[in-house]
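Students often ask why we bother encoding 3D structure as a string. The short answer is that it lets us treat folding as translation between two languages. Here is a chain of 73 residues written in the first language.
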Amino acid sequence: IKMKKKISISGMSCEHCVKHVSNALQELSGVSKVEVNLAGKHAIVELSADISDDAIKAAIDEVGYEVTAIDNL
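And here it is in the second language, the structure alphabet:
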């Protein structure tokens, strides 16, 4: 399985935020690549396994940010 998702995230304001979100997503099993865009307030993740949107939201919630949308690319 190779999928890409675009995750829109609110609350990121600096490079530290980017790092927190990036680390949280990379810790999810099945995530093969993470690219966080601060200016665009989103992250693009490449998945090697199916991960539920809820699991993605929970990981980002846990580090203090809010997912506003998740789109399959």
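Translate back mentally: The two ends are 13 Å apart (CA to CA). Keep this in mind for the problem set.
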